[in-house]
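W.,

You were right to be curious about this one. When I first looked at the sequence I had no strong expectations either way, so I just let the prediction run and decided to look at it fresh. Below is the sequence, 219 residues in total, followed by the output.
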Amino acid sequence: MCFSAAASFATSAVLIPLGGYTLKTAWQKDRRYLGWASFPLFFGIQQALEGGVWLALGRADPSQLHSFALGFLFFAYFVWPFLIPFSAFLVEDRSGRRLVFLALSIVGFLIGLSLFFPLLVDADRLPITIERHSIAYSSRLIWDAIAPTSVLRVVYAGIVCVPLLLSSVKSVRIFGVLITLSVIAGFLFALHAFTSVWCFMAAIISAFILFVVRGLPRH
């Protein structure tokens, strides 16, 4: 699979205005869905940042490369493992599932903090290379001495996918199936650059949020 700055910027150019529309629609119809409605905007910003990573790699500019990579990983490591289960919590009506989703969002927040904060204080923890036409963020994590990267990825996938798949809202479950398939595809075909490839696939899938918010009755 081949990616480039052009692919990232093109995806961003579509998702950012789409995110503005979904946020406006959710605000007008049902504000519990504002978390979901923010996904296209945030994925669009994330893809714009990865476009910057591609350009900085091409120019061999380490300062810009690090800044753009930190911006990209802020979403990948910190935002998504918290925001996705929290958004599921906001729209869930069943009290038992709400507690589970809230617990997962707290765990996601703590894990995300542990993944991202060390990169802020130690630039050497973030080597970046191009492998098989994709960007590999070979972050040295504080978890490396405790568990293999594959285990951490499975935990991350569980935090992201379980609330979507267990949601009582049908459109959220459909979104969850799409996201889960993207995670499986990343595991099978892009382990060498899982973070970059999965975030790109999830960004494309986030366009589905348009159908979620357009189908909302006014609450």
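Here's what jumped out at me. The chain has one domain: 5-214. And, maybe more interesting for your project: Strands lie at 128-131, 134-137.

Coffee later to discuss?

I.
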